[in-house]
Amino acid sequence: VQRVIEKTDLDREYETRRPTVKNTVEGQWAMAAWCEEAGLNEQRERHLRAVIALSPDHAEARKALGYRRYGSRWLTPEEHMENLGYARYKGAWRLKQEIEIESREAQYELLEKKLRRDVRTWFDQMVSGGRYADLAEQKLAALDEPAAASALSEILADRNQPRGSRLLSLAILTRIAPGSGNSALIRLAMDERDLEVRDACLAELKRQGPQASAPAFLLELKNKDNKRVNRA
């Protein structure tokens, strides 16, 4: 036995009345009214639906079931919104295109977080030289997911990372997502103390052409620090 359903006196009275209800608009409507007085909401809805099955334009039954007239059609507010191209999403009505875009963005963010962990792990394993170093190097060589761009930019900008790791992250970044790390490249071209890393960043910006970095370097020409002006 999973559960015991206790029938109230009203339930028993309903079961007694139900077989006597005529399957007509009047009979079903009267039974729905009795159910409303008795507080039997589920049974009331059943008889209201029987009414509109017999008389689709029965206004009172439609309204009792939550329908509204939109032009020549009876629709629930939910059906009306769905016909307009909306869907319920996170407690609000949103256009299906918006939901799709937000869903894709959420999936991208999840992938980006996963790759941030993975890329960090692979670089750490490669630097450590342990038994996973070769596998980590293979993983990095095969990396082709643009969502890894933020993780690679972080490695590139991290001065605690070995120079080889930083230069490798730059090479992978420019291969899988050219242009996506330009803000980091510009910052490093101006501020990086490691000349080899700085020159590598500048070389990549030159390769992309002036449209990639000229505006940022032009702003630096207004800097009060003469060294920064000369570098820009």
Would you mind describing this structure in some detail?
By secondary structure, this protein is mostly helical. It contains 13 helices and 4 strands. It has helices at residues 9-17, 25-38, 41-54, 59-64, 77-83, 96-128, 133-142, 149-157, 163-176, 182-191, 195-208, 214-220, 226-231; strands spanning 68-70, 73-75, 86-89, 92-95. The strands form 2 sheets. A two-stranded antiparallel ribbon has the order 1-2. Helix 2 packs antiparallel against helix 3 (41-54), helix 6 packs antiparallel against helix 7 (133-142) and helix 8 (149-157) runs antiparallel to helix 9 (163-176). It is elongated, with a radius of gyration of 34 Å. The mean pLDDT is 93.
Overview in brief:
It is built from 13 helices and 4 strands.
